Predict the structure.
Amino acid sequence: MNRKMATCEGSEARSVLSRVPPLLTDLYQFTMAYAYWRADRHNEPAVFELFFRDNPFGGGFSLFAGLSDCLLFLQNFAFSDDDVEYLRSVLPADTDAAFFSYLKELDCSAVSVSAVPEGSVVFARVPLLEVSGPLAVVQLLETSLLCLVNYASLVCSNAARFRLAAGPRRRLLEMGLRRAQGPDGGLTASRYTYIGGFDLTSNALAGRLFGIPVAGTMAHSYVTSFSSLEEVWPQTLVPCGGAGSVDFICLVKGWLGRVCQILGSKTSLVREGELAAFLSYAIAYPQNFLPVIDSYSVSWFSVPQFESLIIVGTNSISEQSLAELSKKENEIDVVGVGTHLVTCTSQPSLGCVYKLTEVRGRPRMKMSEDPEKSTLPGRKSVYRLLDADGHPQMDLICLSEEAAPEAGVSLTCFPLGLNKTLQTVTPAQVTSLRLDVFTCGQITFPLNSASESRERAQISLQSLHPLHKRLQEPQDYTVVLSERLHSLVSDITKGNSKGSNFLLSN
Amino acid sequence: MNRKMATCEGSEARSVLSRVPPLLTDLYQFTMAYAYWRADRHNEPAVFELFFRDNPFGGGFSLFAGLSDCLLFLQNFAFSDDDVEYLRSVLPADTDAAFFSYLKELDCSAVSVSAVPEGSVVFARVPLLEVSGPLAVVQLLETSLLCLVNYASLVCSNAARFRLAAGPRRRLLEMGLRRAQGPDGGLTASRYTYIGGFDLTSNALAGRLFGIPVAGTMAHSYVTSFSSLEEVWPQTLVPCGGAGSVDFICLVKGWLGRVCQILGSKTSLVREGELAAFLSYAIAYPQNFLPVIDSYSVSWFSVPQFESLIIVGTNSISEQSLAELSKKENEIDVVGVGTHLVTCTSQPSLGCVYKLTEVRGRPRMKMSEDPEKSTLPGRKSVYRLLDADGHPQMDLICLSEEAAPEAGVSLTCFPLGLNKTLQTVTPAQVTSLRLDVFTCGQITFPLNSASESRERAQISLQSLHPLHKRLQEPQDYTVVLSERLHSLVSDITKGNSKGSNFLLSN
């Protein structure tokens, strides 16, 4: 196994992450921006929030990831002249030319963001990112932010589930590059599965850019490329610390006889090409011999001298097969996972949404006949309440102007969901879930390296109660609204049910 | 709907496609390259081929895509000094320093590729790409080529299935950016779903880079951002070609009464904020009015004046729901598809493999206890045999030194699969499936634009017999081996079964 920890992420990693161009968004963001501009509403202060509606994979939690990418995207947000000329060519011919001048000047200098730190355990319906700024600008950011958070959080959460299924001892190797959505899908997968709890990646570029330890085995093609022992070179070797060269081929033939005797096999059954391949590999890697033996006809063996070998298992590993593997006694040290990890087979998308919650200081709410699709109005704060054992007990969403809850002080709140009634809780500890990460165009929170986010994920997962971490049928985590937020929702909904417009509460 | 065709792909598109760095590969490619180099085998001429084992989505065919990306990757293949220093830091400390000097000089000037043109209909087990060159170099290319072909071909084939489900009339809009595997997963999805038969994308950058027509509707946030008719601006408009301004709000209120009368509804039930949003949008887009009405409480209506409206349907559309939709009479003109299209929910990976078939002019074969996992030895040619109606009838794989089959001349062959017996066929037409696309480091085939590859896909799909195109339970397409190739497989397999090494037939 060839691996070594690179120490930090360099400027090149930054430039890879930050190269998301602002044109990488849905066209309708521009058509809406123009409509706001046309109505002279583009500079109205507005607030959007980003959240997902269900924990992925039928699980009880998710990990939040993609924040560093979002911050770099915001910091570099600006349209080139070519971008603007392209937009001029696709928007209707009667679009006011002054709008394009406006686009050329646009940046995120009036935008601020509060967010959950990358790697945190998060739950459905809790706003993870709050983006405030001029209405047209924060509208334009929607698709890019969703794109950066959705897959990163999904694959990171998937990795965390594989880690839980594997248990803490076994090392996990991500090897999904060839099955990812193109080159950068693969790079994203390597970064965020590492944050989610994998130990190693096969992706050399991810190793270089993000400091992820890299590892690899051997391909079948290497084995099939050999046909005879004559291809082994050199045929003689000088022993380590010894004097005089030794005929390596003769030595191997001698050992082969002894091994075959132990295994009760015949040396005539050994394929010379395979033997030549393994010998050549051993010559190249005297300290790091790791041959591939899967798919070949091999008898499983138990030879005392082999106990120090590292065994890597790979074979279309899924979360379920990994969990099965972990239940049994076996000698596998490292498990390599590709397709099921990076494509998130059992749920290939997270479904984050980005919803308007406030314009000009007035709360906005999208109502829907499906209550799950309604949004929570107003600018908010989010707190995590911990129990006496330090486990997260519930997340509290309240209006930003409300006072923070206090440890040891009881509070009344409404669980999210239909027909839930008022309940009282006394938290042992209270933490604010989101931090100010971007203020008026400047990144105000350290850009975490992959290993820093990975450490946060481990700590965050450790504190989570085992019932919420269960891979199957986890206990639902409670998310509650403050009484004031709950009242605001009721007021707006009632206002709406009388056929009036969305009610404005203040 | 705002769309316009950009005319060609510029140099910037090329640079996006070609930026796949050669370090974006699995580490084991380097460890194997070193082992070849250590055994002085790195310059032995070798041939690999790329294929997939099963058509995706339970279908009868696939579309081949990703070729332009592969060619640009090969043309630019070279390691930077920083790449090599990184590799030095992760390979074992006793790796010979001369190997790193060798890597610094490496390029694809001795590599040649023959390939199926992008957009062609292809089938399982047929080698799509043949890569020949120095053993260590063509080994190093494996992961990158697989990464570039796998998702491109998968999502392109998925798009073709959506197109078949939709029928030819309805226009299809790809809108999956926010659900793709990060920014470039989204860009890849937009390009290859267009090639597979979509008409439009919501992704503005894909529009600019690849000349794909772009389209968009309106987000809910635009609607919820309005609360009263006072926000509509301007409130008066000058009629097209008319003189004197008109009070637009009064005019709308008048029309609203008449529409409500037709619908048997009350004007008091209309939400003023929604009305304000639609009016503002209409002011911004007098010729391109396309409001979002899904998720809102709307009565379906039939008003004569509305017949000229373009109706776009979007709601987590899958291949199945699209097929259902197409069976019914309805007025939907454009269908927008996101998640299920770009994530390929029903099969999120294609599983292409890259296998060694020849070294130093001698055929190589990987044998496996699972016959499906065995490979076909030797350097090959692939022909498509057409029947008298011009439909592809079967694909013939033979050794490259064999003469091409001729139209009207009968030939004997063996269908792939277990226990298949010799059969005779007389093709009405014969075409060579692969072309020389890269010769000794130079691209020797035009780099097709997205629209050129899309046109090939349409022509290729049109000629395919409907039985092979059926989305459910398609008829199996026949892939056959020439007698000589079949003999070679038998000889090697028998040689193997006697316990000897892989037999070399010539």
In short: Chain A has 17 helices and 21 strands.
